[in-house]
Specification:
390 residues; alpha/beta; Aspartate Aminotransferase, domain 2; Aspartate Aminotransferase, domain 1; 2 domains; seven-stranded mixed beta sheet; 15 strands; 39% helix; binds pyridoxal-5'-phosphate; PyrdxlP-dep_Trfase_major; pyridoxal phosphate binding
């Protein structure tokens, strides 16, 4: 038995400190936007190398509030990927704008900059690149496109806190970065939470106001806001976990490298690749075609591509090996987006990834013996389903 993810191990590692932090919040009585939220905002702004950070109620709200703060609304188009969690397009829909999907780079699963360029119309106002599975998008090319067309760039960093592109933290490259503290993310609370990072004083002020009923001063409301605050209690918990985040991210990278080695002789399993200089790819730390990596992924997930994916999943379930499919139905084919009129075949790389993707157990405390057990079961499952399909 190997779990896909076990968030209780983080708690066990830090139990004494987390329990004390929770008790001190309970005793202090300052439960909404208190000193813990302020301190976490400062710590994450420092880590992400942005002057501003605002805690909000979820990653979904982080995306939604940034789009609202930027004045994006009905009639506007936002270019993004269909290979992501639905929250990315929910945020676009919540401000009344329309998502326009660009296909992915089949090797990195991230939005393909060339496809972004092709999706731009006179109505395009913003791009939301999603750093999927913890791996940064090609931010040089995306920022160049945005500059050329005068577009806002909102980085969906919900799976990628601590990842870097050319040494720069995600969330500091675009106009804003949106983070989630959902329990299974690499920095997860005991409930929902989110955060916006930005270099822009205007976006900061506006999101700050929107999250608390549209006002800077209590009972004085300047714009139509909402209630979207990060809990003081969650902030206190997250601050304790944050002290371990670099080590945990390092452990995830180590596990990814271990999986890569264990799968090196499985030609039918495509391992995750990282971008290197001049658009080449490599397996973590191991150049395929020269050049050093441009990015440091935090491996929120370790996601491979296999044939006969659903049969492989069945075998893994029987062997009690945790696994997950992120995401089985790409957003352009979801019922909620039927009004866009996009047909099967319109985003071939996205659809192929959705059909073949499979994520393996990944959490900081994962042991090499568990990785071996998972990979052996996976190789058996692939072989069995190949024979059966033939
Ligand atoms: C988790 C996630 C979100 C939403 O975050 P919540 O905190 O659950 O609202 C948005 N985008 C991506 C890519 C995510 O993985």
């Amino acid at each position: 038995m190997v779990p896909m993810c076990d968030v209780t191990l983080q708690y066990q590692e830090l139990k004494a400190e987390i329990d004390a932090a929770m008790q001190s919040v309970a005793a202090a009585g300052n439960y909404i936007l208190g000193p813990q939220v302020k301190a976490l905002e400062a710590e994450l702004a420092a880590m992400c190398e942005t002057p501003h950070a605002v805690g909000v109620a979820s990653g979904t709200d982080a995306l939604h509030l940034v789009l609202r703060a930027a004045g994006i609304g009905p009639g506007d188009e936002v270019v993004t990927t269909a290979f992501t969690f639905v929250a990315t397009t929910e945020a676009i829909g919540m401000v009344g704008a329309t998502p326009v999907f660009a296909d992915i780079d089949p090797r990195t699963f991230n939005i393909d900059p060339a496809a972004i360029e092709a999706a731009i119309t006179p109505r395009t106002k913003a791009i939301i690149p999603v750093h999927l599975f913890g791996q940064p998008c090609d931010m040089d090319r995306i920022m160049a496109i945005a500059k050329r067309h005068g577009l806002l760039v909102v980085e969906d960093c919900c799976q990628a806190l601590g990842a870097t592109w050319k040494g720069r933290p995600v969330g500091s490259i675009g106009d804003a970065g949106c983070f989630s503290f959902f329990p299974s993310k690499n920095l997860g609370g005991f409930g929902d939470g989110g955060l916006v990072t930005t270099n822009s004083k205007e976006l900061f002020t506006s999101v700050e106001m929107l999250r608390r009923h549209g006002g800077r001063v209590k009972y004085h409301h300047e714009v139509l806001g909402l209630n979207s605050r990060l809990d003081e209690l969650q902030a206190a918990i997250l601050r304790i976990k944050l002290t371990r985040l670099n080590d945990w991210n390092e452990a995830r990278r180590r596990h990814a490298a271990t999986y890569n080695r264990m799968l090196a002789n499985s030609p039918n399993i495509q391992r995750p690749v990282e971008l290197t200089e001049s658009g080449k790819h490599c397996w973590m730390g191991l150049a395929i075609s020269g050049g050093s990596p441009l990015m440091e992924s935090v491996y929120g997930q370790y996601t491979i591509l296999v044939d006969n994916r659903d049969a492989v999943c069945n075998e893994l379930s029987k062997a009690k090996i945790g696994h997950a499919v992120y995401y089985p139905v790409p957003l352009h084919l979801q019922e909620v987006h039927q009004n866009l009129g996009m047909k099967t075949g319109s985003l071939p790389h996205t659809e192929a990834a959705a059909t073949r993707c499979l994520s393996l157990p990944m959490f900081p405390q994962l042991e090499v013996s568990q990785q071996r057990e998972s990979v052996e079961a996976l190789q058996r499952a692939c072989e069995q389903s190949r024979v059966r399909a033939a």
